[in-house]
Amino acid sequence: MLAEIKGLNEECGVFAIWGHEKAAEMTYYGLHALQHRGQEGAGIVTTDGEKLNVHKGVGLINDVFSEGEVSRLTGHAAVGHVRYATQGGGGFENVQPLVFRSQTNSMALAHNGNLVNAHQLKSQLEAQGSILQTTSDTEVIAHLIKRSGNVPMEDAISSALGMIKGAYAFSILTEDQLFIGLDPRGLRPLSIGRLGDAYVVASETCAFDLIGATYEREVYPGELIIIDEDGFRTRQFTSPMERTLCSMEYVYFSRPDSDLNETNVHASRKTMGKQLATESPVEADVVTGVPDSSISAAIGFSEATGIPYELGLIKNRYVGRTFIQPSQELREQGVKMKLSAVRGIVDGKRVVMVDDSIVRGTTSRRIVRLLKEAGATEVHVRIASPPIQNPCYYGIDTSTKGELIAANHSLEDMREIIGADSLSFLSTEGLEASIVADRDRRQHGVCQACFTGNYPTEIYPDTVIPAYKE
Ligand code: SF4
Which residues bind Mg(2+) (predicted)? Predict the structure, then answer.
């Protein structure tokens, strides 16, 4: 997993808790478990029943929070967020949770995903006199909620959700209520757990494990959950639709120890590797995975073929992030900085190099070269997902179509560009079967739009592709 140089990035991670005397501390730890989902900004907002307390900033959680700052965030409930800077850039004003204060009540909003009709809604809001202070989609949701006037908050949120389209998993904290919601297709992951009597919510279940919480269930597509002093209640703001959870969460983004929609990420990656071996076998001496996210698939490939799995590539763990710059030249150097081929393992061997995905192809070319420079006689590249040929509109930075190698080259051209002796991708059917198996697709279906171009929602001419902005 070489997110910074591969050009494939998650947008955000969301955490929330209600009914815990150390709400800020639990959120701080929960966000640590979600740090891989966003490193550009972090924030926590708590409520003590009367007012919202906020601390947030640009950078990693440890850069933003000291012990004193966490302990100053008093209260029994909290929402937290880690952010990757896509729409609107990485400035402080876009770091979440976004807080909106008014005379009647205040709210803090933390959101993961991307609205496909944000541009239209922003134009409507501005035409009606709203002044947008940030460039993020999250503020659009807040303005739509506020526009509903003097109605109960849950009705205002429900009505706002009826207007927005796209992918979103959010939590909203007011002085006395916590709201949790998921888009009608359930494109982004969101789970509910319990920590004693407290309720916890997180983008990934690895956050529950870190704080000792137990998993309860998924937030359902189109569900709005309300938690307050009267307890936990739920309503549907849309009629149920077939779930299309992002398959790239399984392929690449989520941590292997997380369960998404009740399927373990490591286990599904292993199945992808096994399926890939069945679809595209090859004669070789060793199988190696590109660390970290491809190791599970490589183990699966090895188990299915009987070719031994070896650590042919090692990640250099302590390379500073400041070395990674977006220019092509430095990206290429970045691979060398971040990965080493193990000569003692690959020298004189025919190597199967399993990777989770190919975006621009630059990283794959460098890794193939690293293996050959270390003595590999053949390098057979096996990709545990289908070719990415389309941009994502739902909160994942997959680059534009022009930058995607698979959108612009044939399989043979790609093989030649990356310098491999052979190249194969997992089929879309194989990917879906690895995640969904024989489970009910209405509950457990997946989005594969970046592979197939079949987007599960409307896409408008002015829908913006999330793309990294400095
Ligand atoms: S288009 Fe791809 S990256 Fe985006 S939500 Fe669908 S599967 Fe995930």
Answer: 293, 355-356
Provide CB contacts within 8 A for 85, sequence distance 6+.
40, 41, 94, 468, 469
CB of residue 450 inside a 6 A radius of ligand 1: yes
Question: Is residue 187 in contact with ligand 1, taking CB distance under 6 Å?
Answer: yes
Ligand 1 atom 5, closest CA: 246
Residue 23 CB less than 6 A away from ligand 1 = no
Instruction: List, in order of start, the domains of the chain with CATH numbers.
Output: 9-241 (3.60.20.10), 270-316+324-434 (3.40.50.2020)
Convert 241-270 to b/e letters by CB count within 10 Å (16 or more is b). bebbbbbbbbbbbbbbebbbbebbbbbbbb
Q: Is the dihedral of CA 350, 351, 357, 359 positive or negative?
A: negative
Question: Closest ligand 1 atom, CA of 395?
Answer: 4
Phi, psi of 238, rounded to the nearest 5 degrees:
-140, 165
Q: Is 206 annotated as a binding residue?
A: no
> Pairing mode, if any, of strands 245-246 and 231-236?
unpaired
C-alpha of residue 245 to centroid of ligand 1, in Å: 8
Strands 286-289 and 191-195: unpaired
Please, are residues 345 and 352 in contact by the beta-carbon 8 Å criterion? no
| pLDDT score, position 93 | 81
Query: What amino acid occupies position 32?
Result: H
Q: Name the percent of the chain in helix, strand, coil, to the closest 5.
A: 35, 25, 40
Rounded CA gap, 331 and 235, in Å?
A: 47
One-character DSSP codes across 91-159 = -GGGPSSEEE--SS--EEEEEEEEETTHHHHHHHHHHTT----SSSHHHHHHHHHHHT-SS-HHHHHHH
Six token digits for residue 350: 């025919």
**CA 186 to ligand 1 centroid distance, Å:** 12
pLDDT per position as a tens digit, 278-331:
999 999 999 999 998 999 999 999 999 999 999 999 998 765 544 444 556 655
Task: Give the pLDDT confidence of 231-247 residue by residue, as tens digits.
Answer: 999 999 988 788 999 99
CA of 247 to the centre of ligand 1 (A): 6
Q: What are phi and psi of 18, to 5 degrees?
A: -135, 130
Mean pLDDT on 6-34: 89
371 close to ligand 1 (CB < 6 Angstrom): no
Active site residue 12: yes
Residue bearing the bigger pLDDT, 175 or 149: 175
Is it the case that residue 336 has pLDDT exceeding 90?
Answer: no
Q: Is 447 annotated as a binding residue?
A: yes
